[in-house]
Automatic annotation (TrEMBL):
It comes from Marasmius oreades. This is FAD-binding PCMH-type domain-containing protein. It comes from the Eukaryota. InterPro entries: BBE, FAD-bd_PCMH, FAD-bd_PCMH-like_sf, FAD-bd_PCMH_sub2, FAD-linked_Oxidoreductase, Oxid_FAD_bind_N. Keywords: FAD, Flavoprotein, Oxidoreductase, Signal. GO terms for molecular function: FAD binding; oxidoreductase activity. Belongs to the oxygen-dependent FAD-linked oxidoreductase family. Pfam families: BBE (PF08031), FAD_binding_4 (PF01565). Residues 1-20 form the signal peptide. Residues 67-237 form the FAD-binding PCMH-type domain.
Length: 492
């Protein structure tokens, strides 16, 4: 934990410098009075905020500072009807806007804008229905909030694995969870969306009400309007076992072997891991997350990891939310950041060896350019994850083969280094793709990358594949004047 403590102090200093930098940017002025138009049209359940107000800064804030922009104003709608009124004004005036749920995208401009920032924070309900075993969740909250509200009922949903991630973007892009091996992706557990269509109409979208739109919303992100509520299936949840172990450079090879063995042999759907290779403070290390959906773990599953000498170790039987809060998921908060991904078919020793090399090769070079956190997250899942959908979804375009949501994450300080980091993450992803192809992993170069990890310039033809045509026809019907084109994201 020493490394993390030092890092936290270093980052605080960096945060102050990047914050000062952004405050020096020219302030945007709403010369057309769009924000006052919105202010006059919305009900008393909603509010508009301006530069200088605390709520404005909260509304434009993101997990990665590079995902934030200064907007004309921010608006916190309190009703779905007001969301419709706001979309109407933005459409008529052709004003760029952004919709933010938990603000955890690493892609610049996906939930930020220099137009009008919409923050969904007032959509904060969590309403559990024991009868139907479902829960209605507002799109302005984090998974932490949902887990906390469901815990007293001993049920859970298929959501985020670490603290602070928003339910909205996560669910609209797919959703890989500790529980995915058992129940599928989050999109596979959605039974209904409350959607404000671009024309302002508030509709409930289910498989039976509108099968095409239901298909499109499960992975199609913000292309079809603004979602105000999800209805998700719930599942029984008791105590779980797991947490975080960190290892220093000396033990990287042993942990790599353990991860490869786990990936190749463990078929118990209650077990799951994330092996994160990171380069911090001049050296490679591993943050190893272990999860088992039960108070005790059958012998053999995690024994290899537990036998390796650790740097820090915090694993035990605990509540689900406590496990989610164990890793320091906001360690790089306030820094610039980018995610990218390779849709791997398998976690093989050759891939892991290449990942170790990438971590050290780019870690040592990028740290000279204010790169504070260079990391590669290996996330094995069972192919059975794809077997839980009631019908096809926008993502993944094919369910016949499981490609894994492997994540690359870089964090750095200075905005003038953005293009260097973006170019490097592209090169690193290309290199790992080549390694996978060279060892015979078929389809990796064309498979659909996970939209919640894919970098902003990934072509939608690649993400949605065969599904793109169907998505485009849903889009033409639901958003004929292309109002959602005024906001960032992967556009179908
Ligand atoms: C620390 C961390 C941990 C993560 N862990 C996981 C993980 O375990 N599994 C996983 O699958 N992914 C994970 N992710 C990736 C995560 O799925 C994405 O970052 C996702 O975008 C987060 O959703 P959000 O609501 O916080 O994001 P936001 O930045 O608020 O939104 C992301 C996108 O969704 C759109 N959007 C937001 N709200 C709405 C709405 N109401 N209607 C329509 N569109 C909307 C935005 O416009 C934007 O394009 C993680 C990310 C981070 C940073
Ligand atoms: C290590 O990674 C770099 C950058 O991708 C690459 O050029 C180099 O060939 C790799 N080395 C080995 C031994 O794989």
């Amino acid at each position: 934990m020493l490394a993390y403590a030092v890092l936290a102090i270093v980052h605080y200093t960096f945060f102050l410098s990047t914050h000062a930098h952004s405050a020096a940017e020219p302030r945007v002025v709403d010369s057309d009075g769009i924000c006052s138009q919105i202010e006059n049209a919305i009900s008393s359940a909603s509010d508009v905020y301006y530069f200088g107000e605390l709520s404005y800064f909260k509304d434009i804030g993101h997990w990665a500072s590079s995902s934030s922009q200064l907007s004309l104003c921010s608006v916190e709608p309190g009703t779905a009807q007001d969301v419709g009124i706001i979309l109407g004004i933005l459409g008529t005036t052709q004003t760029p806007f952004a919709v933010k749920g938990g603000g955890h995208t690493a892609n610049p401009g996906f939930s930020s804008t220099n137009g009008v920032q919409i923050s969904m924070s007032r959509f904060s309900e969590v309403t559990y229905d024991a009868q139907s075993q479902t829960v209605v969740i507002g799109t302005g909250i984090t998974w932490d909030d949902v887990y906390a509200a469901l815990a007293p009922h001993n049920v859970n949903v298929v959501g985020g694995r670490v603290s602070g991630v928003g339910v909205a973007g996560f669910t609209l892009g797919g959703g890989y969870s500790w529980l995915s091996n058992q129940y599928g992706m989050t999109v596979d557990t959605v039974t209904a969306f409350e959607l404000v269509k671009p024309d302002g109409a508030v509709v409930t979208v289910t498989e039976s009400s509108d099968a095409d739109l239901f298909f499109a919303l499960r992975g199609g992100m913000n292309n079809f309007g603004i979602v105000t509520r999800f209805t998700l299936k719930t599942f029984p949840q008791g105590q779980v076992w797991g947490g975080l172990i960190t290892y220093v450079a000396h033990h990287v090879d042993d942990v790599t072997k353990a991860a490869a063995t786990f990936s190749a042999t463990v078929t118990d759907p209650k077990a799951s891991i994330i092996t994160t290779y990171n380069f911090v403070l001049g050296s490679i290390g591993i943050s190893q997350l272990l999860f088992y959906d039960g108070p005790t773990v059958p012998d053999g599953i995690f024994d290899d990891f537990l036998a390796i000498p650790h740097f820090t170790k915090n694993v035990k039987t605990r509540d689900f939310l406590d496990l989610v809060k164990t890793p320091p998921s906001d360690i790089t908060i306030g820094q610039r950041g980018i995610f990218h991904t390779v849709p791997l078919l398998e976690i093989t020793p050759a891939i892991l060896e290449a990942v170790v090399n990438e971590t050290m090769f780019w870690g040592s070079r990028l740290s000279l350019l204010s790169g504070n956190f260079i990391s590669y997250q290996v996330e094995p899942f069972l192919p059975g994850v794809l077997s839980h959908a009631s019908s096809p979804s926008a993502y993944p375009p094919s369910r016949s083969v499981m490609y894994l949501p492997f994540n690359v994450y870089y964090a750095w300080t200075f905005s003038f280094s953005d293009s260097k980091f973006h170019d490097t993450i592209r090169a690193s992803v290309q290199h790992l793709t080549n390694v996978a192809v060279a060892e015979g992993q078929s389809g990796v170069e064309t498979a659909s990358p996970y939209p919640n990890y894919a970098m902003y310039d990934t072509p939608v033809t690649r993400i949605y594949g065969e599904n793109l045509g169907r998505l485009q026809s849903v889009k033409a019907r639901v958003d004929p004047s292309n109002i959602m084109r005024l906001t960032g994201g992967f556009k179908v």
